Amino acid sequence: MTNHELHQDFERQLLSAFQHSKRFIETEDEMSVAPNATRAQLVERLAGPVPESGEDGLAVIDALAAQLDDGLVRSTNPRFFGWVIGGRTPTALAADWLASCWDQNGCLSSTSPAVAVVEEVCGKWLLDLLGLPKTAAFAFVTGCQMAHATCLAAARHRLLANANWDVETQGLSGAPAIRIVTGSNCHGSLVRAVRFVGLGSGSIVSIPADEGNQLCPADLEDGLAREPARPTIVVLQAGDINTGRFDPFPECIEVARKYDAWVHVDGAFGLWANVSDRHREKLNGVEKADSWTTDGHKWLNVPHDSGFAFVADESALRGAMAHRASYLTHDAAARDQIDYNPEWSKRFRALPAYAAIRQLGRKGIGEMIDRACDAAKQLVAALAEHPMVEVVCMPTLNQGMVRFRSDESATPEEGDAFTDRVMENVNKGGEAMFTGTLYRGRRCMRISVSNWRTGPSDVRRATVAIGEAIEALAREKAPG
Ligand SMILES: *Cc1c(COP(=O)(O)O)cnc(C)c1O
Q1: For a substitution probing ligand 1, which of 241, 271, 349 has the most ligand atoms within 8 Å of its CB?
Q2: H helix runs in 214-349, sequence order
Q3: Which of 82, 165, 232, 362 is the most exposed place for a label (fewest CB within 10 A)?
Q4: Shortest CA distance to 130 belongs to which of 247, 294, 240?
Q5: Which ligand 1 atom is the nearest neighbour of the CA of 297?
Q6: Which residue from 292, 108, 94 is spatially nearest to 190, judged by alpha carbons?
Q7: What 3-state class would DSSP assign to 393?
Q8: What per-residue confidence (pLDDT) applies to 209?
Q9: Which residues in 154-230 belong to E strands, given as ranges?
Q10: Is 472 exposed, middle or buried (0-12, 13-18, 19+ CB in 10 A)?
Q11: What is residue 451's predicted lDDT score, i.e. its pLDDT?
Q12: CA 199 to CA 196: how far, in whole Å?
């Protein structure tokens, strides 16, 4: 292959990917938000034996675009209200493309000085934006899930070192048993992280959350007092997945300190409230914790594969992660990412986040946060007007919940089933997409806004779509 042919090959395939991306973006507002393809259809199109001889690259790219399109969840659509999934801004997406093209190995400063410096600068920017201690250490990981595992590894290092136990060398067999004390509403990714670092989900002490789905400091103290001398990690929530509520940080952290506990904060989306003048006070005191996690791929609206771990005590994180090998080139002055990160090779993960922060600025991020919170509140308020809607949670941040009932006399169980059917109908209609949750034993539809574009017209369109779905079901049910 001549150089000219090589360049043409890249150009043809990348231009094709660009055209498919362009069409995806330009039809975002018209296409069904929820996917239409069935699993069977996707399997039929994609499965088969390993190809013995390859295909033309351009044909592969074109085929993928055609075969996967209706199997995609258009979570980038501003009327996607499911789970907590952000979109991606043009700048973050463009930076992500460059990161793929450059294909850097972000292991050490010597494997890519560019990655090392962008990561270092971006980490400091994040600490500033999120109101965390300037000197905290950080790691760029795949998501909040791995950020939890990273922080818990640092916590494990520090707590066991305090008990004269070198966990990195001796492992956990025979070590003092660490317990994790957290609210009953803690996210499942925290439970998995506890498993990953070998502490076992059985060591989690779950404190029932109060009416507002928050941890009550007195209940936390009761939980801690049961085994006052045990090494402990207290996990607090900055933005509960269902209600968007925050645990009372100053009081909870004060209680945790009495028991020398390590305090970890799950702020997957909630930590971003710090960039909003309206919502910052919810995070008062959060900076006194020991470790924090958040995501770039949720509220910062960068493409997926972007989570951040922060640890106040740099030596704890390095103690858990640092590694020296004879074949690696360590730079004395530079920051080697491997000393902070659970991964070895990794992509230029910090680039989209760095680009997004540079493009939006503190002001732009704050406006994005406020816009999402406004949209969540407007949507729940608009739905509240409907006689068949019961508001379960009026958003105080960007998360709300509603339930639907077919008529006044419907039982709670009928309400559960009706709620699921309304959601199913809305999603089938394609105009918007919602997902459900079990909250205090009852099915609810979650209203979650973390897309940078979601605004008043999306609220109107979603309200109409939900109203129509309710009416269609009511007609179905009415006799005759
Ligand atoms: C999404 C979420 C997580 C998990 O984050 P990933 O980025 O999906 O790993 C953890 N906690 C909360 C509160 C979340 O919303």
Answers
A1: 241
A2: 217-225, 249-258, 314-321
A3: 362
A4: 294
A5: 7
A6: 292
A7: strand
A8: 87
A9: 179-183, 204-207
A10: middle
A11: 97
A12: 8
Q: What is the pTM of this model?
A: 0.97
Compute the distance from residue 17 Cα to the ligand 1 centre, in Å.
29
- Up-side HSE of residue 21: CA atoms within 13 Å toward CB? 11
Whether the Cβ atoms of residue 119 and residue 337 lie closer than 8 Å to each other = yes
Residues 215, 250 contacting (CB under 8 angstroms)? no
How many Å lie between the centroid of ligand 1 and the Cα of residue 202? 21
Question: Nearest C-alpha to atom 12 of ligand 1 is from which residue?
Answer: 268
1-41: per-residue pLDDT in tens?
899 999 999 999 999 999 999 999 999 989 999 999 999 99
- In this structure, the number of other CB atoms found within 10 A of the CB of residue 443 comes to 21
pLDDT number for residue 212? 75
User: Residue 154: which pLDDT band, with cuts at 50, 70 and 90?
Assistant: very high
Nearest to 114 by CA among 128, 95, 130, 133: 95
- Separation of alpha carbons 308 and 354, rounded Å: 12
Q: Which atom of ligand 1 is nearest to the CA of 240?
A: 13
Residue 479's pLDDT band (cuts 50, 70, 90) = low
8 Å CB contact between 310 and 293: yes
Tokens read off for 316: 């704890």
Phi, psi dihedral angles at 323 (to 5 degrees)? -150, 140
Q: Is the pLDDT of residue 363 over 90?
A: yes
Distance 90 CA to ligand 1 centre (A): 23
CA distance 77 to 151: 32
**309: helix, strand or coil:** strand
Q: What is the pLDDT of residue 169?
A: 96
Pocket of ligand 1 (CB under 6 A): 84, 143-145, 187, 189, 239, 241, 266, 268-269, 295, 307
Query: Best of 266, 300, 308, 398 to mutate for ligand 1, by most ligand atoms within 8 A of CB?
Result: 266
Which residue from 151, 152, 187, 449 has its CB within 8 A of the most atoms of ligand 1, so it is best to mutate? 187
CA 268 to ligand 1 center in whole angstroms: 5
Nearest CA to ligand 1 atom 5: 144
- Give the tokens for residue 150: 């990273």
**Strands 232-237 and 399-404, how do they pair?**
unpaired
The pLDDT assigned to 328 comes to 78
Question: How far does residue 307's CA lie from ligand 1's centre (Å)?
Answer: 9
pLDDT for res 478: 67
* Residues 170-182 pLDDT 10s: 999 999 999 999 9
